[in-house]
Amino acid sequence: QDNSFEQFIINYCNEKLQQIFIELTLKEEQEEYIREGIEWTHIEYFNNAIICDLIENNQTGILAMLDEECLRPGTVTDDTFLEKLNQVCATHQHFESRMSKCSRFLNDTSLPHSCFRIQHYAGKVMYQVEGFVDKNNDLLYRDLSQAMWKANHSLIKALFPEGNPAKINLKRPPTAGSQFKASVATLMKNLQTKNPNYIRCIKPNDKKAPHIFNEALVCHQIRYLGLLENVRVRRAGYAFRQAYEPCLERYKMLCKQTWPHWRGPARAGVEVLFSELGIPEEEFSFGRSKIFIRNPRTLFKLEDLRKQRLEDLATLIEKIYRGWKCRTRFLLMKKCQIVIASWYRRYA
């Protein structure tokens, strides 16, 4: 119910994670259809970049203004910070405050005068401005760090490396918000170099008890995790996509024209394969470099046919091997019989 600087930082990190989730799933999904030349009806989804900009913009972002209040001379309080927010963010569509120059929230009794509210992608969150400035400063006095660094215990010395006289810096230490912002930027850069897989965990109830399903709680989690947009994009699009070469290599055994070897472009081979199997045209589309399959059941059908074909091929190999083995044994016995018969006739 009471959200302060700590929850604000946590929600900022959630916004950044949601942003990269959007870029790597929803946005990339739709851009791939355009890139591959697939006919596609664009699905609208909420892009939370505007909320991230509200928080982290270097000039007008909330963190930047908080740092500016912490560093400027003169009397600095939480109220002066809120006043600065009310001046700069008054017209922002995701910022709400009763003290702002915007008159939209002057009569909103659910919003106290000492608070501001941000409309996050998951919903509106109200923050108590009290303590923002002090928590953002996060000052550790230099003489305390130097005293701890001089301790004989190696662990204590390791915890206060800034106390080392060789590393004394007269500059003001970075604020908690700027440190966290830099850490989040490093995390985002690291994630963008990877190929992440998302696992979304849903709590069925708050009691951690079995056989209890709280529908309102589950719906709330689905909404703020952004799963609805993801499901809409997935259902409107194609469940499976694969380059032509590996697709043809995997399923070429299902068609006599492509088995055992296909002479020609891989796309032409896939077209012949799907035509031979009689798969309805609305179930797939041919992109510039990939085959797109709309429903999972079509893929399951291909896998079942491939599994049956592998069993048939295994049976064929076994049959040929057994025939070769029996014929080889028969020919050997026949040869031995002729040798024995010839020697017997010689001495008979």
UniProtKB/TrEMBL annotation:
PROSITE patterns: MYOSIN_MOTOR (PS51456)
UniProt keyword list: Actin-binding, ATP-binding, Motor protein, Myosin, Nucleotide-binding
Myosin motor domain: residues covered: 1-307
SMART domains: MYSc (SM00242)
Region (Actin-binding) residue spans: 184-206
Gene Ontology BP terms: actin filament organization; actin filament-based movement; endocytosis
Cellular component per GO, a single term: brush border
An example Gene Ontology molecular-function term: actin filament binding
Recorded family membership: Belongs to the TRAFAC class myosin-kinesin ATPase superfamily. Myosin family.
Protein name listed in UniProt: MYO1B protein
UniProt source species: Orthonyx spaldingii (Chowchilla)
Name of the coding gene: Myo1b
